[in-house]
Every structure is written in structure tokens, then in C-alpha cells.
Amino acid sequence: MPVVKDAQSLVLAGIVARSDLIKPSLAHFDEEEKRERMRGLPWQSP
Fold this sequence. Notes:
Number of helices: 1
Distance between the termini: 46 Å
Structural class: alpha+beta
Number of domains: 1
């Protein structure tokens, strides 16, 4: 997805890939999964 400096000049400032948008969500998911593993869930057997 192209990123422009402003709508008037349409100067290309960069490109945002789908993976760039997904990375923060994956990092949050991984952190939450680690917390749950350390805490242990009640329905999991030891």
C-alpha cells in the first residue's frame, strides 16, 4: 500500500506491506500466550 506525503502533492513517502500491519498484532498475541503459559490455565492438566 503506497503512503503519500499529503493528498495534494501525492509525493510517495513509502510503502506499507500487509506484514507491517500484522507484526504488532502477532507480537501482542505472542506476549499474551507467554503470560498464559506462565500463569497456567485452570482447564490445563499439569
